[in-house]
Write a structure and sequence with these properties.
Elements lengths: L14 H11 L1 H5 L4 H10 L10 H16 L5 H9 L12 E4 L2 E4 L8 H15 L6 E6 L5 H18 L10 E6 L2 H6 L2 H4 L11 H4 L3 E5 L15 E6 H4 L10 H6 L12 H9 L13 H14 L4 E6 L1 H12 L10 H15 L4 E8 L3 E2 L2 E2 L3 E5 L1 H6 L5 E7 L4 H19 L8 E5 L3 H18 L7 E4 L8 H8 L10 E4 L12 E6 L6 H9 L11 E7 H15 L3 H5 L5 E6 L7 E15 L22 E5 L14 E5 L11 H12 L3 H9 L4 H11 L2 H15 E15 L11 E6 L3 E3 L17 E3 L3 H11 L4 E6 L12 E5 L4 E5 L3 E5 L4 E7 L7 H17 L1 E7 H6 L9
Parallel strand pairs: 3-8, 3-11, 4-6, 4-7, 5-6, 7-8, 12-17, 13-15, 13-16, 14-15, 16-17, 30-31
Antiparallel strand pairs: 1-2, 9-10, 18-23, 19-22, 20-21, 24-25, 26-29, 27-28, 29-30
Length: about 900
């Protein structure tokens, strides 16, 4: 156990880790508190759904976002930690040892029990980071390239949609969003929030509401904010300095004071000046900051307009590197009595919105790491690290090159040669030319040294200097055409390949076709080395590539230091993948295996009857209309136990007349029935007139109780007009056990532990190898699966055994569709093994951990597998993990 509170904040023991664990353990219980919209939104974005768009870290962060709102009611992190530690409130059911939940054995936080002293230390730190603010502050720490911009957009869209379904008194959801970007580069990348296909993250039934969302970009100081006061669905994207409140810290000269306004600086509602104005009976509004020029006027206008928007959610992009040490102090990682100007602006917005009767719902910070220096930010609620992103193919692998005692031209020549070698192997992923970024520290260095050297090096290799693009922020060297080329680098049309930069291409520059970065001189900002290095790691194409980084030895040391400070990994760890894991190129063995399947489906046909006999009776006189009445009951006094045997007078009266009922006419009655039966009105009029009840009888009952029309009249007319003919159709066909991978790259990449790979090529001497391997490599998730495979390979009753639980994202047609009881959604299930017995029959095998066998999800899969198996003559068996590993399971399924 850690000896002090701070030591408990190591990455693997931070509170957000246990918050996520609690959610995963109690997901079923938690979802019962969710609205239908929230469940539908999460199910639509679940990576297990075929065709879903979000990556796993994006979806997990979205789950936490919804969890904080719908289940935890937007409480500040320090209050959540207090409830979690005390097993109270929503955390009453927290697992602290081994417990059974929904039929599953769960291991809880048994390794993070702490003393009360340690708890108080952490709680104090968390509460200090909140600083008594009027809004909760949450930090989502996802490393670069995992999709923070799309995640932010998805969270905002969810919040708008969920809040639109709630009452006006529900303050958990936002109606407007303000996004702060640290600079113009990030602001440009945030335009993706508007430009990407929203149908990828929003279910189709909610897209009409998305069409009402309004986007505002505040890039330049001269642009005002045009929002309607009190309106909703506004998404405002701004550089932080465009709205931020500013103070004159340097003071003014005597001349400045003479010619400037005499009004005092902005103090905000609740400040000392406001109190003084109250005492003096003056209007505090007149004491607000006076704009010195037009730009200041626009800044004030933006602040004033935002103050008038209800239910504001504030989103801070690139929060970590945008504010650096200031952020560390501001968020509680380091003690400091002052907040930075961005945080001050957010606090003032919260105060002003509260005064106007609404609020800042929350501040959501998106950053690349949960760390600041040696500290973990206390208000982190989700994190996904750099090493994990590389291992799971969300980023490129990285190859680091460092050089000692080289001149700049030699350095550039080696780097460009290495890049060109790699680019030739890569080709054009997604039809985009691989690119190299070369960073300089000054404009003079780029213009006088780097550019001439690069042009000479390329000329020697027969490459035109037209491949060079310069972006240094100087109009003399970087034209508007160059800026347009820079913004379209990540497109197939771009033929620029060598990008020369000064103070560009840092946070927010999204160039997936960037494969290499070179930096010779030490930059003024140490963090710049890390930011520049990360630019070439964004994934591109269908397979994992490698980004190359070229640094001097001194810069490599700086990179190592920044990696340690920001990601708790070294340069060696960054470039070396997990030694226990390997990425296997899985190829399909030919001829491909086909499995005979029978699919049973029921088809229903509507058979329209001949004209109804005149006088056809709908039977409305038998309808029990009492269920539609409003009955008012009164009773004199209470019926007490001593009154047993005596009677209290109870009076019942029918007050159905107070119901709001629509009065139908003959015309409107026909129109409504025709709308449901999808038949011409004249035909419907003839049918209704021909019934024994006629228009008079139907209208009398319908106008007394409107419900009768939809519950009785229309369904009875439907049955009178149509017969339903059911037909059972059995289809026999063959499905591919595995689909062919895309031509490029020609295989399926799978990352797996080295000891769980069984290769066909390494077992060719085994006489039983012919009984299996529809793929050249089997990559198992667990030891029980691997051991079960070996066991079946040597069983005499087994003719063939295939491991089918490896490719589970649409790469196989051998799939079972089932209904998830919890979500009522159709999902896809791939059994672990398919065995063909000596008699030619088949059996599906699922190897499952003991703690999961009785779970509802496993039961749902089994029910669906049994249904398919009955039709196709394929058996289904579940084997416990321990039994599979030890071989102690029964072999009856082979008989």
């Amino acid at each position: 156990m850690a000896k002090n509170a701070q030591e408990n904040f190591e990455l693997n023991n931070a509170f957000y880790v246990h918050l996520h664990e609690f959610y995963k353990i109690h997901r079923g219980t938690v979802r019962k508190h969710y609205s239908r919209l929230s469940k539908a939104f999460l199910d639509f974005n679940d990576p297990s759904r075929p065709g879903s768009f979000l990556r796993t870290p994006q979806f997990e962060a979205l789950e936490i976002y919804v969890f904080l709102k719908e289940f935890l009611d937007n409480k500040p992190v320090y209050q959540l930690f207090e409830d979690w530690y005390g097993n109270k409130g929503r955390f009453e059911e927290r697992v602290s040892g081994i417990s059974a939940i929904d039929g599953q054995l769960m291991q809880g936080d048994m390794f993070w029990e702490m003393s009360e002293k340690d708890y108080k230390g952490i709680f104090k730190k968390m509460k200090a980071s909140n600083g008594g603010r009027l809004y909760p502050n949450y930090i989502f720490a996802l490393t670069m390239g995992t999709g923070k911009t799309i995640l932010m957009a998805t969270c905002i869209f969810y919040d708008f949609l969920a809040g639109n379904k709630k009452s006006k008194d529900d303050n958990r959801f936002i109606q407007n969003a303000l996004i702060f970007a640290p600079d113009k580069t990030v602001l440009q990348s945030l335009r993706e929030i508007e430009s990407f296909d929203h149908t990828k993250v929003v279910p189709s039934e909610y897209m009409p509401i998305v069409a009402e969302f309004k986007f505002h970009y505040l890039e330049d100081a001269g642009v005002s904010l045009n929002t309607l006061d009190g309106s909703k669905f506004n998404i405002i994207v701004s550089n932080s300095q465009k709205i931020i409140l500013r103070r004159d810290n340097k003071g003014k000269s005597k001349a400045d004071k003479l010619f400037s306004s005499g009004k005092e600086a902005y103090q905000g509602i609740g400040g000392v000046v406001d109190d003084m104005m109250d005492v003096l009976g003056l209007d505090s509004e007149t004491m607000n900051v006076a704009p010195e020029d037009e730009a200041d006027l626009v800044t004030n206008q933006r602040f004033e307009k935002i103050k008038r928007l209800p239910q504001l959610g504030i989103f801070v992009d690139e929060a970590h590197h945008a504010f650096g040490a200031k952020l560390a102090k501001d968020m509680g990682a380091k003690s400091d009595n002052t907040a930075n100007s961005l945080r001050k602006t957010i606090d003032e917005l919260a105060i002003n919105l509260k005064a106007s009767g609404t609020r800042v719902v929350g501040c959501y910070n998106y950053t690349g790491t949960p760390y600041v220096g040696n500290d973990v930010l206390p208000e982190v609620v989700y994190a996904y690290g750099l090493r994990k992103a590389i291992d799971n193919n969300y980023l490129k692998q990285v190859k680091l090159h460092s050089f000692t005692q080289t001149r700049q031209k030699q350095f550039l020549e080696i780097a460009i040669d290495k890049f060109l070698e790699g680019a030739e192997e890569v080709g054009r992923p997604e039809d985009m030319l691989p690119k190299m970024a070369i960073f300089g520290t000054t404009i003079e260095e780029i213009n006088d040294v780097v550019r001439p050297a690069v042009e000479e090096i390329l000329a020697k290799r027969g490459i035109s200097s037209d491949r060079i693009l310069v972006n240094v922020g100087d109009n003399k060297l970087t034209t508007d055409d160059d800026i347009r080329e820079f913004n379209r680098l990540d497109t197939p049309k771009s033929e620029k390949q060598f990008i020369l930069l000064v103070n560009k291409g840092r946070e927010g520059w999204n160039c997936r076709s960037l494969f290499s970065v070179a930096m010779f001189r030490e930059p003024k900002s140490k963090i710049f080395i890390l930011q520049a290095t990360m630019r070439c790691l964004r994934a591109v194409g269908d397979r994992q590539h490698t980004g190359q980084v070229f640094l001097t030895d001194e810069n490599m040391k700086l990179l190592d230091k920044e990696l340690q400070a920001n990601f708790r990994i070294s340069a060696d760890e960054m470039k070396e993948p997990d030694p226990n894991k390997v990425t296997v190129k899985v190829k399909v063995e030919h001829p491909s295996i086909k499995i005979p399947i029978k699919r049973v489906r029921r088809q229903f046909k509507l058979i329209e009857k001949e004209d109804l006999d005149k006088g056809y009776e709908l039977g409305l006189k038998d309808v029990d209309v009492d269920r539609y009445r409003i009955i008012h009951s009164t009773q004199d006094g209470l019926l007490m136990p001593d009154d047993l045997g005596s009677a209290k007078s109870r009076v019942h009266s029918d007050i159905s007349h107070i119901k709001e009922q629509r009065t139908f006419s003959k015309l409107t009655l026909v129109a409504d029935i025709a709308r449901y039966l999808n038949k011409p009105c004249l035909e419907v009029e003839k049918i209704v007139a021909g019934t024994s009840e006629g228009f008079e009888g139907i209208l009398k009952m319908v106008n007394e109780f409107n419900e009768v029309l939809y519950d009785e009249v229309i369904p009875r007319l439907f049955k009178a007009i149509y017969d339903i003919e059911a037909e059972t159709i059995t289809e026999e066909f063959e499905v591919d056990l595995v689909k062919e991978p895309p031509i490029d790259p020609g295989y399926y990449p799978v990352t797996v532990s080295k000891d769980k790979v069984i290769s066909k090529s390494s077992n060719e001497s085994n006489p039983n190898v012919a009984k299996s391997f529809h793929l050249d490599n089997y990559c198992f998730d667990s030891n029980p699966e691997r051991d079960f495979f070996w066991s079946m390979l040597h069983e005499e009753k087994v003719d063939k055994v295939w491991f089918t639980g490896m490719l589970t994202h649409g790469q196989s047609d051998f799939v079972i569709h089932y209904v998830d009881s919890e979500t009522q959604r159709v999902r896809s299930y791939y059994p672990d093994f398919l065995i063909k017995k000596q008699d030619g029959s088949y059996v599906m095998i699922e190897v499952k951990g003991e703690h999961m066998i009785d779970s509802q999800n496993v039961k749902d899969k089994k029910d669906a597998a049994d249904l398919m198996g009955v039709a196709s003559g394929i058996g289904y068996e579940i084997i416990a993990g321990k039994a599979a590993e030890s071989g102690s399971y029964g072999r009856e399924f082979l008989n």
